[in-house]
Amino acid sequence: MFDSDPVFELHRGGKLAVGSTVPLSSREDLSLAYTPGVARVCEAIAESPELVRDYTWVGHAVAVVTDGSAVLGLGNIGPRAALPVMEGKAILFKQFAGVDAVPICLDTQDTDEIVRIVTALAPSFGGINLEDIAAPRCFEIERRLDERLDIPVFHDDQHGTAIVVLAALRNAALLLDRKLEELSIVISGAGAAGVAVARMLLAGGASDLVVCDSRGILHKGRMDLNSEKVALAEVTNARGITGGIADALDGADVLVGVSGGTIDEDAVARMRPGGAIFALANPNPEVHPSVAVRHAAVVATGRSDFPNQINNVLAFPGVFRGALDAHATHITEAMKIAAADAIAAVVADALTPDAIVPSPLDPRVAPAVAAAVAAAASPRKLPAI
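User: That's the sequence. What structure does it adopt?
Assistant: Structure tokens below.
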């Protein structure tokens, strides 16, 4: 029944294949690429492990790792059903940044086992891109791997989204003739993306920031928060407001939706006129663009069929390319901010309400991000915000 469906036809046989980078047309080629020549390279790496970057694919290879627990907007569909997404991620790495990526879908959702498996696999790669792992486990998995490994670890659902949101908000603020530092910002959603967006905006200069989850505004008096939300409540909501999303939006300049829920128009109407709404849930934005435009001057979504798509492909290929080129051991806050600034700068001279970020297909983006990330790279981690 799938034969006439172009989506299934495109995916038939998968979207990836292995290709050789060296000739194998003679006995001499074989002796150089494999035995006996390869033994000399093995011995050199055994003596000087850092040579692995130069004489294997490690310098341009990333593992795309998932447990299938939070795939797109489909939820916990498991590792096999997640594989088409991970293959797609891998071809985006290659297309936009020349990074070779291998999809690895793990048949476990146990935090300790995932950390153990990825740690054991790490010598084969120059970086680890965690993908579609549900909160709150994703926070601990990334933290523990980042502590154990001397290669970059990056959960794209958190940090890729956060980088592009910061880039978009920088340009939106320019269009609105407002300063990022003075904007009143509400984030709807306190999962992986919501937490990362909040921390990224704080690192980028925002100060008036309120985060809401499904039970209302995060504040220090709430007793039902997990550890990540407790930490977030400590550094947000400086005014100490309480209540629900409508209370948070009263007089706000910006709404960033990363929740997957629906926000009533009556709540959105309480925002300060002429602000920005980024409704990023897929496929159904928290506020439909046809509604958002009645209450905001700048509207963005996560969808490709509306203007201003907040798409992670603007970030992750260049982030890893820059980190690999710089031999970075970690992705720092400074590198993420540099990536956001580079994305914003690509279109900063030609801003319109319908173009606050580049197209996901803009060939200028990944090289700009890679250069900025490499320049900002440091083997030392910045203090957590």
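The beta strands are 61-66, 100-105, 127-130, 153-155, 184-188, 208-213, 216-217, 254-257, 275-279, 296-301.
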